[in-house]
Specification:
4 copies of one chain form a homotetramer. Chain A is an alpha/beta fold. Chain A has 2 domains: 116 residues, 3-Layer(aba) Sandwich (Rossmann fold), CATH 3.40.50.720; 173 residues, Dihydrodipicolinate Reductase, domain 2. Chain A is 39% helix and 25% strand. In chain A, the strands form 3 sheets. A 7-stranded mixed beta sheet of chain A has the order 12-11-7-10-9-8-15. Chain A has a 6-stranded parallel beta sheet with strand order 3-2-1-4-5-6, sandwiched between helices. In chain A, strands 13-14 form a two-stranded antiparallel sheet. The longest helix of chain A is centred in the C-terminal third of the chain and has 20 residues. The first copy, chain A, starts with a strand and ends in a 6-residue tail after the last strand. Chains in contact: A-B, A-C, A-D, B-C, B-D, C-D. The interface between A and D is large, with 36 and 36 residues. β14 of chain A pairs antiparallel with β14 of chain B, so a sheet runs across the interface.
Chain lengths: 337, 337, 337, 337
């Protein structure tokens, strides 16, 4: 039984806590740390079978019984806590992004060298049944050489502007998942990126220095093209689709719904909206990613999403930001590592 | 150029007239006869390029230049006019049903013997792209031996009760198309039939001695089962679907729409309703069935839907009626020919 | 924490055991009994966290700590063990069917009177997201008065003939789920039933006195019609669909797949086959039905699927059998209770 | 009856000829001109009811009885013949593109000023039922303000390299339809364009100085974004899809097939490939565009696709070409008119 400490008891920390206690075999959450730990959270954690709570994550790092930590704290703390955890010999599952700053990710990477620590980054979509089916079809050669990869990723509603301000911008906060999907689905690396975007959802997002709608075009090393379109608001729910097109054909995935019921009446032929947002859509992926992490610890296997994946997605994001600012395509080689 | 006379200038007569003049190659409508011929109809016919109009269909039968007639008059006149036309040496395309009375259909059949006349019955669905795709899949062995055939056939709205009264009842008026589809799609014959039904759309239909909703189960000679469900009213439009299931798999067809546009918004994910009714849904089939009829005349080929098909569908309908009245399955061998 | 004893460690017993230990909150399996308990099963049970195993289910009934039992033994033992369990004051979750013999179900019903025991029957489909969506649409009046209910239910492959022989026949073994769905989806009761069927999958099934393919038509008390089609073999997997059609429109559900990936290539546009069989298709429903059972115990609520539901489905099955044997529609009132 | 002369008896000339003679009411083709007119073509034309043929299109322009011409000759002759026809007082339907050279299109535009001549450009997709449904939804405000427009347009197979060489390049030959669709579906104008592309289908296309696969991103005047992806080869047939996404939702269209039959078997659940290519896919649109042209002549209405539409699509194409060559986004204002 792998004993886990969770650092950060916000939304995603609780998601992982509940999914581990309910569904992840061979692992249990011993301790949860959060600087704002309060009675409500403690009560919720006890109810979910967590024995210990603390305001100081260092208690977790010092606990000899704890094998692994999940870093679910605010993004600016991901890198320093990662390094501390690695030094304490804990296996680390770190929520995405590792950091907005490439230099800090490189520090984590350096800390990992020779440490023997398993380090997994929380790109949950890699564990989703639909995206995995695209990856498998591409990998199995079902579409031949990849020509054009398209990803559509839209949130149902924008987060609060207060969050936007510290989010690192749409590319590092939202598109980062799609950048990772480009790498995962293609099995290739991005060479250059061109980003176009605008403020179409909420002018406050623009005032905060960010955009809310974007189309990002990429050239991959193989010469294939990729295009992502994002929006912070889709009235019909969380839109998560992808298409990989190649010399032999295409594989495409559409949205998942709570049921496939279709009502036909005088108004038309109507199905349900897609599942509302990431918690509904990717719950099974959250379980699976942590199960894989546990498996890589127990059976000493490489993690499925490592620090290099965490790094590359941020590098593409930084290049996209530069492209948007400078109104020109940017090569990844322009981004200093 | 085959010269055609159309007998009956009602809705279906006009459909055929317009489709022949616009789309059927190698044929033209010379004369249209209708006892209620009036100025409006004459004007409409002229506009569509028809030279002659008359109140007396016998003028058409006497016209040496006319090669073929389309019988689009009221059902009770189909059989006698068919016989007259056959005697006059005209090829005949007769709207369905040939008659409600089996004996009268047999008279037509007898008249045809040795006549050299081409006689086609207006089962338009045999010429529809979707139903044809099911037939081809079954015939090509794609599903192996047929096990269960299902047909769903619902009209958007019930006809006037005045029509219902002379319609011969739902089985001979509406289901007759589906009975023909059972024979066409299966390539098999019906052995017995069991009908259940009710008045669910309009009590006036019940007062007129008919039902408006039915489920009819059949056993085919091969042992396969078939089931049809009918309703005189579907709020979402004309519902025309079929599924053929067999030892190797299933082939299924769904409805056609004016466009495949899907709107996703806060209310759901909605496509269009199916095409409204038979004129919209089967317009191309109307063109194709007459083109085939012309082709069978020009190239002296057997018609694709002959008098035997016209007869068998009515026999099944009569058996279904008997089944409903007597509350038991009825063998087709019980129906006197 | 509700303590559960499972009686019967076959396939479905294990499914429930694993789902309770992994996913059902507030319940744990203390003991599993099976007359054929062996080392392998004991090992599997220990691994899943079950403390005690026994060959004698009476140990479970005698255990004061155990609140509830799941009866997953062979069908012929369901009724007698149910009665023993009720007398021992245990809440009972009994797999379907309660018995093939109506008289025995009535004995269970009698034993329940005044017992205070919760008794739930294992009709898992009532807890499926798709079927629930149909039920909700019908209940909410989305389709108005129900006119025609259609259920298609096909297994991927027939069970061994040895199983067929003790199964009670297709209607009590397989269609029984669909009979329950007719009652659940319609919110109505069956008045009469007409069954047609044949041996199309395996002649051995016929030799065992059963059929493998059937179409069953029913009239409900409201006058609405229902039709079920069954087959023991569908090459494309487990086919589980339903349509409810009414005065205002239709609600329809289709199959679920492991992913919604669609591959378009020179061969066509192809999606995955439906999920293979009931374990894959209804795993979440198995979790949900036991969770509901636990909830009805903990919060003293009526069970969602009671003995009356278990009885009625068997009554319809017996009537269907009689209909098939006698080749005529059978009223449920003909079946002696 | 409008009398038409067709200039150019190649593939598209024949398509228009046949569709006018068969389906377009109120118009007939009197004469067809082609410098390579031969016996086979003459025979085919006679069979389709065309009275006169000639090698010299000037005969058509000189024919007082002819009201309108369809220019279906090679692209380099479109502009000069257009001008001659305008001067001869003939209404003109000109196949796309009017010319590869903006200056020549402007000359046509100038010739039209005050001429009273109807001039329609052959952007057939504007008359397609699916694209029209998107336009109507956008126009009717169903998706609110447009945010992102996506068009996927792939041919089943690349044309011969000999054609590629004189085609003006992918943007002026193939994407030009999509550029027109961007303007049509959005009801907006393009402000800037960024093109990425590559040679992925056939190296010979690259040797001919063209690309065969492209992703083109555009910013519209309203600030909305548009993205087109093209490929000269899709193994599954002609891929013609679009999505318009906005503040209230999305409208999307998919491909049309010859039938909607779906075969489920041991291999999966498979539908047909999309209709093969433009002749199959857009046949009804070809009829409709010429019918509209005739209607604009008969009823003196403005044409639905005028010279300005012909011009703007080429301007976007020229900008896309420049963007690809220079590896940067290009403003339409950079293109000299």
């Amino acid at each position: 039984m792998i004993k886990i400490g969770i650092i950060g008891a916000g939304r995603i920390g609780k998601v992982h806590c509940e999914s581990i206690m309910s569904y992840v075999k061979g692992a249990t959450v011993k301790t949860v740390a959060d600087p704002f730990m309060n009675e409500d959270t403690e009560k919720w954690l006890k109810k979910n079978g967590v024995e210990y709570t603390t305001k100081d994550y260092k208690e977790i790092l010092a606990d000899k019984e704890i094998d692994a930590v999940l870093i679910c704290s605010s993004t600016d703390t991901h890198a320093p806590i990662s390094i501390e955890a690695i030094k304490a010999g804990k296996h680390v599952f770190c929520e995405k992004p590792v950091d907005h700053d490439i230099a800090k990710i490189l520090e984590v990477k350096k800390a990992l060298e020779g440490s023997g620590v398993k380090y997994q980054v929380g790109f949950n979509r890699r564990f989703d049944h639909n995206f995995a089916a695209v990856r498998e079809a591409v990998k199995a050669g079902k579409i031949g050489a990849l020509n054009v990869l398209k990803i559509c990723s839209r949130d149902p509603a924008a987060p609060p502007v207060s969050y936007i301000k510290v989010s690192g911008g749409i590319f590092l906060d939202m598109t980062i998942h799609d950048f990772d999907m480009v790498r995962y689905l293609s099995g290739d690396e991005v060479e250059s990126v061109f980003a176009m975007g605008g403020v179409m959802v909420d002018p406050e997002i623009g005032k905060a220095g960010d955009i809310d709608t974007a189309v990002i075009t990429m050239r991959l090393k193989s010469g294939a093209l990729a295009v992502i379109d994002n929006c912070r608001r889709a009235t019909y729910g969380y839109d998560q689709r992808a298409e990989a097109f190649g010399e032999l054909g295409q594989v495409a995935i559409s949205n998942d719904c709570a049921s496939n019921a279709v009502i036909s009446d005088a108004n038309g032929v109507c199905g349900e909206k897609p599942l509302l947002f990431f918690l509904e859509r990717y719950m099974q992926a959250y379980v699976k990613e942590v199960s894989c992490f546990i498996d890589s610890i127990v059976n000493d296997k490489p993690v499925e999403v490592g620090i290099e994946d965490g790094l590359q997605a941020v590098v593409i994001g930084v290049a996209a930001k530069k492209s948007l600012e400078e109104g020109r395509p940017v090569k990844l080689s322009e981004i200093k590592l």
